[in-house]
């Protein structure tokens, strides 16, 4: 992250504001779920404990577990019942998405942006990244799902703490036909990926997630040790844009970067078509149940 001392100071101030705001409420569940994801010895009881320590989250998870989307044969009244019915991995994702959704609030819509369309984009990116990992790499893709949900957290921060400047950024990007990060760079001296990376570092998230969030718009610049997730996230965002799924902060994606990502990941374009079709179908079901 090539920023001068003044910009680093502004980022630090923003992170401090975040840590005193409602946004920081997701820190414990995110950290807890990530710990479970990366611990092969974790059990359903670990997940149950993380969820139940947060009564509002418990209520939301149980409400969704009882929805027509999961269609339980009888009412689910406890988290352990939810695990049995919808599965360990699905419950982790449900708990995480329900908690993260709580920070997606702000001042309605402006230009092509709205908080609802950003949430839809984030969920789609999470599903796409996870499915690329599972189908193409034969890996679980749990960290990919987390990265998809959180990669644009910097935009949430801008919309809440830099409201007037953020509207100017959106106007500038629209009028001058620029990607959001370019307009942000000109107005703030940094972009939403820098903000997200600073938050991820402050929260001590795994380096793979820090790099994915920080380099999701420029994945070919990421450290090769942790670049796989950043590359996958760019591919997911590219697919979202090409299929008009939610708000796109990259209305002018770079085809060369996209092809470079596919080459680095050894993923064929036709494989993506099948993945996009699956995710589009899944999103339609989720929308029908009010999950997106």
TrEMBL record:
Domain named HDOD: residues: 23-219
InterPro entries in the cross-refs: HD/PDEase_dom (IPR003607), HDIG_dom (IPR006675), HDOD (IPR013976), RNase_Y/CdgJ (IPR052340)
Superkingdom of the organism of origin: Bacteria
Pfam families assigned: HDOD (PF08668)
PROSITE patterns attached to this UniProt entry: HDOD (PS51833)
Entry protein name: HDOD domain-containing protein
Lineage, highest ranks first: Bacteria, Pseudomonadati, Thermodesulfobacteriota, Desulfobacteria, Desulfobacterales
């Amino acid at each position: 992250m090539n920023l001068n001392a003044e910009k680093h100071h502004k980022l630090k101030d923003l992170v401090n504001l975040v840590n005193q705001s409602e946004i920081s409420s997701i820190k414990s569940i995110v950290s807890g779920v990530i710990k479970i994801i990366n611990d092969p010895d974790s059990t359903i009881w670990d997940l149950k404990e993380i969820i139940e320590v947060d009564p509002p989250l418990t209520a939301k998870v149980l409400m969704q577990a009882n929805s027509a989307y999961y269609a339980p044969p009888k009412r689910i009244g406890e988290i352990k019942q939810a695990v049995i019915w919808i599965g360990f991995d699905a419950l982790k994702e449900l708990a995480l998405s329900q908690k993260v959704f709580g920070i997606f609030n702000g001042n309605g819509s402006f230009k092509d942006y709205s908080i609802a369309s950003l949430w839809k984009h984030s969920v789609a990116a999470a599903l796409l990244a996870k499915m690329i990992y599972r189908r193409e790499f034969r890996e679980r893709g749990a960290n990919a799902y987390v990265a998809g949900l959180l990669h644009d957290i910097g935009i949430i921060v801008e919309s809440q703490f830099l409201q007037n400047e953020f509207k100017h950024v959106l106007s500038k990007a629209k009028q001058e036909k620029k990607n959001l990060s370019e307009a942000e760079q000109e107005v703030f001296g940094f972009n939403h990926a820098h903000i997200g990376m600073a938050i991820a570092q402050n929260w001590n998230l795994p380096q793979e997630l820090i790099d994915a969030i920080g380099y999701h718009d420029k994945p070919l610049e990421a450290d090769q040790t942790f670049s796989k997730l950043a590359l996958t996230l760019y591919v997911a965002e590219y697919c979202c844009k090409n299929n008009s799924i939610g708000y796109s902060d990259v209305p002018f994606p770079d085809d060369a970067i996209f092809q470079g990502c596919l080459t680095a990941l050894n993923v064929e374009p036709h494989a993506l078509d099948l993945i996009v079709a699956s995710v589009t179908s899944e999103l339609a079901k989720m929308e029908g149940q009010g999950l997106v």
